[in-house]
Amino acid sequence: MNDQRRQRRAQGHVYTRRLVLSILSIVALGVVRPCIGQEEPRIAREYTLKAAFIFNFARYISWPKKAFSTAESPFVIGVLGGSPPELKRALAHFEKKKVGTRAIRIQYLTEPADAKNCHIVFFRNTLDADTMKETVEHCVDTSVLLVGEAEDFIDNGGVVNFSPAGKKLVIELARDRALKCRLTVDARLLRLAKIVD
């Protein structure tokens, strides 16, 4: 019995390593390419990594069928709170990819109400508190994954938050809130995240 448990745990670690390697390989393949002989600016590296994680959230989280109008409907990733060129370049790379059979569409939102028409919404840390609150309210009782990068994002209704920890990026996940949104998070992603319920 213990051998089986050890074997399952080892297999889980292999899957988690594969997920991490897949994210790192996307970053390493040059979503944002540095100039020869120069180090990538910190902000470009940061948004390249965040874009790679957002793409992998789309792959390792399952949405209910009713979140899509038709079998051909695209997977929509919205961005709210302004978009620096580094983020736009990083996300544009993933617009050429697919989530399963669905094309990816990136939308830069200007109205909080538009968030409910997306599958993932990334809240920039430049967003003011009132707009953040209004957007979260529009997404109540929907299957929209709310992803942010502000210190109090989870406290204000977010589901996933990018939290810096030195040179690392910690993924905070409000698992109970994801379940309320009818989102199923793959065990591999759960092992990577810091659960903050």
Write the layout of secondary structure elements.
Elements: H1 2-28, H2 42-60, E1 61-62, E2 75-80, H3 85-94, E3 98-99, E4 102-109, E5 120-123, H4 129-138, E6 145-148, E7 160-165, E8 168-173, H5 175-180, E9 184-185, H6 187-192, E10 194-195
Parallel strand pairs: 2-4, 2-5, 5-6, 6-7, 8-10
Antiparallel strand pairs: 1-9, 3-4, 7-8
Write a structural description.
This protein is α/β, with parallel strands linked by helices. The chain has helices at residues 2-28, 42-60, 85-94, 129-138, 175-180, 187-192, and strands at 61-62, 75-80, 98-99, 102-109, 120-123, 145-148, 160-165, 168-173, 184-185, 194-195. The strands form 2 sheets. It has an 8-stranded mixed beta sheet with strand order 3-4-2-5-6-7-8-10. A hairpin with a 2-residue loop joins strand 7 and strand 8. Mean pLDDT is 83; it is low at 23-39.
